[in-house]
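Minutes, project check-in
Item: structure for the 267-residue chain
Input as provided by the requester:
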Amino acid sequence: MTSQSDTDARHGNVTPPPEVRNFRDLGGIENREGRTLRFGRIFRSGHFGATTREYRTSLNTRGVRRIDLRGADEIALEDAELPDAAEALRGPSYVAEDDAVWSALRSGRLDKLAPTFTATRAAEVMMRLYGSTIASHVPLYRDCFAELLADEHPVVIHCSAGKDRTGWAVAILLTVLDVPEERIIADYLESSHPDRQYVIRDESGAPVPTDDETRLVLAPLLEARPEYLAHAWDAVTRSWGSRTAYIEDGLGITADRRAAFQAQLLQ
């Protein structure tokens, strides 16, 4: 039987408090050559806003870096204390027409959503997020991968829910590490598990109760769906001609850097 101490050691003693959603180690994922990602090196997660400054300081003490992909408005809403500004890359702004939707979700003011807001409209919001915001925001991900390659300390990549911007960053990283696409999608879809989904909170930090009808309407915003990831890759191909051109020319992950990532993260 594996003890808790054995599990903690395997993950580099990086254990999240219950307030952090969607936290997981990418260790053990296998690429096409049968090599696996090292445990305790790259983690993905939702935001740390509900944790204490002491906990975040403890991560720093243990040499764990956080790469924060959120925007300034999200940090202001979600962080219980002043954010660690130096760690945030400042993510992209959402498509203007969807600002009200994201604001209502982040602040827990679901009453601000129009009475006509439906699951279909929510899915359209997500497709715009992936096609017009995530896939097109090259500087954010170029900076993210430069940070990842900067040193060999454990790193937690996170945004708000840890599924969209973080999901895209992880999908790119796994692509660079030559992980089969079906395994990339499988990791991405893990964020849909109810226990991993973003918790909608009001401005006091209390969870907002939702009925079955509301949960059905909001499901496209809270789940990771394969069509979202596919839409982002389609947008990349339209803009860059190929995934390889986006990764190499857009994000600056050249053949040498790809080899460096593989040497650093695979065993």
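Outcome recorded: Residues 1-9 have pLDDT under 50 and may be disordered.
No further action items on this chain.
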